[in-house]
């Protein structure tokens, strides 16, 4: 038995090494891009500097719009935090956090799922962004984006972003394991179950740091607190959405009243007030093995993250 555990541990270490080696290769490719001819000479040495490139829509809101003096500094701070924490290409997580930041200061926004075209040579790809006062706002930091793509997005905003519903029949197909399909599943998860997605994302160290940097920003600049993860996420079965009967005393009376009587079931866990947790992420919980298996096959096998995970580049359609 001990030998089997040791083999599993070695396999995990090898897998981690491969992932980090891949990231190092991708990082070197990004560095080489700084010499690309699409950049003017005075910019090539500052590939990752967030300067005037991101002061126009869709990266910023027009100064003529109400609340622009609150929105643009927030967007700028967010981009810099993403850069500092090495978070790249995760529009679902970023859009959700910015949406909640704006919500706390009374600014309405909508998190939108759809497709984005970054230049005239590529096809539309899955993406998530915000709509504020009818304006498309894309706050996702992309480490290796080139200036031509930035300019293209700025000059063709309404042609580059297309809101659409995902093909749910594809999302539920267990055999659909292509990177593009998995990336779409991950993004739509932030739309369908934002609190579940946020709770899982905070297992990743860099995302945790970014999230609390945004909390600190909102407190220091607006004396406001971001809406956290819905406490029911800790108790609910992530697949059938039922609750353990023993957990009633741990959920506020207001929330209990919103839960139908037939949603309360007995827990098979030794602690009757909660269900069993996923052993890897320790966040998702399930009332029985059947629900855990079904959720794993549909989405959790992609979104599950162990606590304290080191930030890895999110799966994207470009990955092999």
Automatic annotation (TrEMBL):
Entry keyword set: Metal-binding, Zinc, Zinc-finger
GO molecular function, one term: zinc ion binding
InterPro entries xrefs: Znf_MYND
Any Pfam family matching the protein: zf-MYND
Keyword Oxidoreductase assigned: no
Occurrences of domain MYND-type (ranges): 237-304
This protein's name: MYND-type domain-containing protein
Native source organism of the sequence: Biomphalaria glabrata (Bloodfluke planorb)
